[in-house]
Amino acid sequence: MSSVQSSAADVDVDLRQLFASLARNWLWILLGALVVAGLALVLTWLATPLYKSETRLLIEARESIFTRPNTGNEADRPNLDEETVASQVELISSTNILKQVAQQLNLAKLAEFDETVNMSPISRLLILAGLKSDPNEIPPEERVLKKMREKLNVYRVERSRVIGIEFSSRDAKLAADVPNAIADAYISMQRSAKQESNSEATDWLAPEIADLSKGVKDAEAKVAEFRAQSDLLIGQNNAVLATQQLSEMSSELSRVRANRASAEATSQGVRKALQNGGSLDSFPEVQASPAIQRLRDREGQIKSDIADLSTTLLENHPRIRSLRSQLTDIDRQIRAEAQNVLSSLVTQAQTAQERENQLVTDLNRLKAESARAGEEQVELNALERDAAAKRQQLEDYLARYREAASRQGRNYLPVDARIFSRADVPIEPYFPKIVPIVSAAFVASLLIMSIFALLRELFSGRAMRPARGPQPEPVRQVPMPAAQVGVEPEAEEMRQSIVETPAPVKQPSGDERAASVRKAAALIENASAGRSPVDEPEAEISKPEVPSLGLGEINVEKAADRLITSGAARAIFISPEGDEAAASSILVAREVADAGLRVLLLDLTASGAASRPMLDGSSQAGVTNLLASEAQFSDVIHADHYSDCHVIPAGTADPVRAMRAADRLPIIMQSLTTAYDIVVVECGPADADGIRRLVGEATEVFVSVLEPSDAVTDAAVKLIESGYPDLVLVTPAGYGRPGAPLGRSAA
To answer: Domain range spanning residue 199?
Structure first.
């Protein structure tokens, strides 16, 4: 039996059956979604519309290149990086600007921004009762600022220097006026800040310029005084006079030395030419002599005459001889004149030598003076640098002062931001959006209702099916000891096959049978006397001490309490008196269901006597359809028309075909006990061997009793002998008939 139960413990989720529940419950799902969508439509229609508008600022340098001070200094230009833009965002949403806008637009008198304006009587009662904080305890400005911050959104557009100012309000015009006023207040604050900075600059520069002017004057006076005392007179090219003279003297000395060297070289050449009889035409100084030039002209004329006369006269002609004599005399005169040029050159060289000596003497004197002037020039340069620095600083301050004064006078202070998109009065509200909200509510409710339907189907167990696994071993069929009158042979054979035992039971001895008979008789006597069935020792059976109770209701209630308190998972009901006794299982199942537990009644009677009163008919699919694989759990589980109990009827399938799958019954029982808290099984007039297949852990066995009879006694004796000494007798006496009337001969 344990192997059968372990195999039956594996169950799967039937996805087809699970999602088929959506098709069965589509009407309720749709109605629920429509109701939610209708509520959303009503709420959005009644909600106060909100309008939103936006103003955008661009952070950029507004200074013109023509008016920008120090156009060549990049360090003085504004830095418009991400941190600067983020800082401007915080500045725009600062308290000072919001207070200024609130005061300008008089927002404190609007109920939208101040709860104390037109406060409703309900709010006043809540405040008096202490259920709501009194807004009057907060200053009016703080109340207005709190509401403004809730409706205001200042943000920086990503990857840009654009700042957006969004504001929402019930009034469309106010939704546009507030961001525009905030932007104007921000521009005005920036301009005021620049004016204040410019005014502070002029106030600071004025005394600084006065002090610098005096300092520059004193520094320049010290430079002039030191130069006069040190005799450091300035010559050309802003150089000290001694240094300039030294430079000029050096240049003159070089020139004189060059002239002397040139005169000596020329005189030496002329002297050698005269001594050796060489030509004097290669010396420019000789050629430059006017006398030698005239002699050379005369010499050329005589040579020309000799050449002319040589064509007609002989060489010894007196005239030719005269001309040649003149030519010799001219040559002698040229050499005499060259000797004079040589004397002049020698004299010139001597003069240059004397000049050179004089210049060397003067140069040495100027060197000493220049060295002294250089030492004093160091201190003079220091004084001049100090005066130049003060002069430059004074000029810079003067330029800045003039710029600041001109800007202040002309009121030209451009702000590094501009409004490039002003907020317009919105036409349509941004909230509520009726179509999107209603559509979202409809879709969300459809989804939630569908999920709820799926979960209900899953937890009810109707979407569970046994897992595929090894089939249990075939069982031996044992015929029932007696069959009901009027039952078809196929149905009776199916019922016998379903509730048959898998193994023979050991027959009890004579003493054991006698004790069982006595115990059964005591139980029946207790039941007929209206006593509650209890488990007592065998020695006390003949004298039960159970208090006398009313029939019917108490016994059914006791049976239900026994199932609940004992934690039973299965309740097996045997009705030896026929179908009318099956009312006990129905009443107990409904009693347990009314206690809040999940209960299912499985009808294994051949005639469907237990399920017909609960379903008002017997045409529904049931356990035979499940065994014949014609239906699934979701198809055979039905709801009781008169309670929260679920029921599986006998079914409408072919009993012969269902008999072939009787081995699946333990698996079905295990699946049902997994899905439900208690499974009540009505077996009809079965014996102990016939219910062994249905018994598992935490199982209670009950015998339905209408009135004491031999059939009841015989059934109780056999159950006790077969290993069920703790059975309980239950009677439906005192209760109305459940549902459709039951007859003793309904089978």
So the answer is: 51-68+77-213+416-431
